[in-house]
Amino acid sequence: MLKVENITKYYGDFLAVDNLSFEVKEGEIFGLLGVNGAGKTTTFRMIIGLLAPISGKITLNGKPIDYNITDKIGFLTEERSLLTKMTVKEQCIYYGTLKGMKEKDILNKLDNLLKKFKIEEYKDKKIKELSKGNQQKIQFITAIINDPKLLILDEPFSGLDPFNVEMFKNQIKEMAENGSIIIFSSHRMEHVELFCKKLVVLKNGKTVLSGYLKDIKQKYRKKNIEVIGDIDVESIKNIDGVLSVTLNNFTYQIKIKDESIASKVFEIVSKGKNITKFSVDEPSLNEIFIETVGETYDK
Other C-beta atoms within 10 Å of 264: how many? Predict the structure, then answer.
């Protein structure tokens, strides 16, 4: 288990992370979210031991994270961190060796991962000769080549098309099923919703939202109603507690203050014609994020 307990970090007088706590168990994928400057990168760096907190502590399976443990950690940074004049093979041997692996084991693992990501032919090509998407694949491979017990993924899908995103997703899920602790950050909220059962949202270094995603959605009162059919839009807009009514691809999206308004909306909708859908849905994580933080993730 990864335990982050009451960590605080200053840069001079600037408070970057303020009394942050969370736990991630083996096999869990945990979301750490926030706009730029919220404290995510500083938190990642403290977890892997590049920075020390001013106060609080971080442990992995009850032990402080130091050089005795870092060989069990993988970190995919948001920024490219590849040595572009190296070949893919040379790059992976370099990173694997830093993690204490033997060259034979590195090459066996590399061959398996290259095959899985359908880029076997790039093994002896230089990094600079690869597309951005394939460079991202190699960066991901270097982060997981040591089968890390703790894996930190900062914007892992950057530069990937939907097909390659799916391959990454499958690999991440497989690693979680095999017991890896995974911390995941992405500006694509649909990916966070797919992966993460637990999350923390940071704003200016402070925790503004935390817990299990299902509980967060239940506590967030605003709901969405989807309706397909011919309805009296103006009458619905006039209901106290209806926040907005929009039409997207023949589907009416009705935002309501809370679930108690749904029956009033249904009363009017039921008088319409050709009604083929009426559903009350939980708000998306993206809606909750914007409401909580006050701005979009990727501002």
Answer: 15
Q: Could you give the residue range(s) of every CATH 3.30.70 domain in the chain? A: 221-281
Amino acid at 7: I
Structure tokens at 261: 């308004």
The helix, strand and coil proportions of the chain, stated in percent and rounded to the nearest 5, come to 35, 30, 30
Cβ–Cβ contacts within 10 Å for residue 298, how many? 10
- Report the relative pairing of strands 14-24 and 2-11 from DSSP bridges: antiparallel
Tell me: pLDDT of 10 over 60: yes
The CA distance from 106 to 75, in Å, is: 17
**How far is it, in rounded angstroms, from Cα 70 to Cα 225?**
48
Q: Which tokens belong to 73? A: 């950690």
Q: CA-CA distance, 15 to 113, in Å (whole number)? A: 40
Per-residue pLDDT tens for 90-135?
999 999 999 999 999 999 999 999 999 999 999 999 999 999 999 9
Locate CATH 3.40.50.300 in the chain.
2-217
Contact 233, 241 (CB under 8 A): no
Q: What is the mean pLDDT of residues 209-237?
A: 91
The model's pTM is: 0.83
**Which of 3.40.50.300, 3.40.50.720, 2.40.440.10, 1.10.10.10 is the CATH number of 2-217?**
3.40.50.300
What's the pLDDT at 299? 37
Please determine, for residue 296, whether its predicted confidence score (pLDDT) is greater than 60.
no
